[in-house]
Every structure is written in C-alpha cells, then in structure tokens.
Design brief:
The protein is of the alpha+beta class. Helices cover 30% and strands 21% of the residues.
Amino acid sequence: MITIEIPVRELHARTGHYVRKAASNVEVVVTERGVPSARLIPLNPISDKGQAATISARRKLLPEYRRLAENGALRSLKEGIKDEDRGLREL
C-alpha cells in the first residue's frame, strides 16, 4: 500500500480527492504542523482480483427507479427542467 502525507489544510481543501485516493488503496496520513494526526485507509482493501469493493460497486438500482427508466418516464439532464415541472407558474 502506498502512503502519502498531507497537511490538514490540504485535506480541507480537497477532501473528496483524498477520500477517493484512500478508497483506491492509498494510505493518506494527515499532519498538523508536521505531526501525524490522522490516517485515511480503505474501508474494503482491494481484493486479489484488483477491484475495490467500494460502496458504489455494490449499489443497486431501486425497482421503482428502474421501472421509470425503462418506461421512459425519466428525462435526461440535457433536456433540462422546465418551471412547470418544478411546480412554478407565472402569475
């Protein structure tokens, strides 16, 4: 496992980046004034197959959402959302 050290200020500025690094089997040691104070490690280390058992890999589509998607009831985000879809209307 690779280990990197970062100051707490860097963690604060780029939290998501370092959480993803830790999830990909990189140990992140957080320091305060040069003194190690915390460590981010993967919750589920990478298996022998080389794939991480992350939460996103275990996610499943809800049956209701799958049904709506298959029926075409869900629009793509490219189409945008109209004001009437939000319940707004002109007075």
